[in-house]
Amino acid sequence: MRVPTIIVHGGAGADLSDAPDELRHGVRAAAQAGWQVLASGGSALDAVESAVRSLEDHPRFNAGRGSVLTVDGTVEMDASIMEGDRLECGAVAAVTRIANPITLARRVLESRRHVLLVGPGAIQFARSSGIAECAAESLVTDRQRRRHAQLAARSSAADGGTVGAVALDRHGTVAAATSTGGTAGKHSGRVGDSALIGSGTYADSSIGGVSCTGDGEAIVRVVLGSRALHYLKEADNPDYAAKVAVDLLVEEGRGQGGLILVDWRGRAAYAHSTPLMPVAIMSPTLAEPRVPF
Ligand code: GLY
């Protein structure tokens, strides 16, 4: 039996000068949602899905409702999820009209046929999996409409509040999940790290799990998720692995961002090169989630 743990993040580009309590409340609620699953003996996969759904539903984060807008003013979301016992994974990219892309990614995982579905094909798969489409407008918040107007003259911006979760359950299974609207003002059809297993998300129950956030192109360049677990395996030190991986992102990837980790023993860690990355951690020794920002 292992001691379960969950860590969640709300994106490396978050801005603490604007309603920080909303961010704290959002990540705390997500950690609690995932923790309820783990505490009742549920799986790490259910826990990370539940935590990420909570953040997708929260309008303050850049995932699900609250996603940033493409240059055309539309929402196109990426998400991925992975279970580390059998390296089962599922992902979706550039999906529209789906309130919880992480659940669609989970369905792809469960199909055990494909790993990544994109665009209209992913929506068709959602329909056949019983996931209802929502109105495109219901995902667009006034905050992102304002941001889109301000950004109109620029090509793209950092990912704002991409969300993610990593958990270890009492059976020793590690799972990780990430969901995002991508980068504000991105080209339609652009896909970032959050849809890519090995870059934005990775889990191997013999090592640990990771969810990344930040400049997607830079994260993809260095395959950050996979490299972070490599450092974790080598050093057996989650804090060190998280820090070295973020240094790699900055120095070789030439971008900014952050990541969260849980190792196979349940030790959680995080690191970021940006001023703020909202994080919440929950484990049996805590009465309520620790929100260290
Ligand atoms: N890190 C999220 C993205 O670049 O799409």
Give an overview in words:
By secondary structure, this protein is of the alpha+beta class. The protein has a single domain, classed as Glutamine Phosphoribosylpyrophosphate, subunit 1, domain 1 (4-Layer Sandwich). 33% of the residues lie in helices and 22% in strands. The strands form two sheets. A seven-stranded mixed sheet has the order 4-3-2-6-5-1-11. Strand 7 and strand 8 form a beta hairpin. Helix 1 packs antiparallel against helix 2 and helix 2 runs antiparallel to helix 3. The two termini are 31 Å apart. The mean pLDDT is 94. The structure holds glycine.
Short description:
The chain is α+β, with helices and mostly antiparallel strands. It has one domain: Glutamine Phosphoribosylpyrophosphate, subunit 1, domain 1, CATH 3.60.20.30.
Q: What is the name of the CATH class? A: Alpha Beta
Spatial gap, N to C terminus: 31 Å
CATH H-level superfamily: (Glycosyl)asparaginase
% residues in beta strands:
15-25%
Shape assignment: globular
Q: Main sheet?
A: 7 strands, mixed
Q: Which molecules are bound in this entry?
A: glycine
Cα gyration radius (Å):
17 Å
- CATH structural fold name: Glutamine Phosphoribosylpyrophosphate, subunit 1, domain 1
> How do the SSEs run, as a string of H and E?
EHHEEHEHHEEEEHHHEEE
- The number of strands is 11
Unreliable segments (pLDDT under 50, ≥5 consecutive)? none
Describe how the helices and strands are arranged:
Layout (H helix, E strand, L loop, with lengths): L4 E5 L10 H20 L4 H14 L19 E7 L4 E8 L5 H11 L4 E3 H10 L13 H10 L11 E6 L5 E7 L20 E4 L3 E7 L1 H6 L2 H12 L2 H14 L5 E7 L4 E5 L6 E4 L11
Parallel strand pairs: 3-4
Antiparallel strand pairs: 1-5, 1-11, 2-3, 2-6, 5-6, 7-8, 8-9, 9-10
Bound molecules: glycine (GLY).
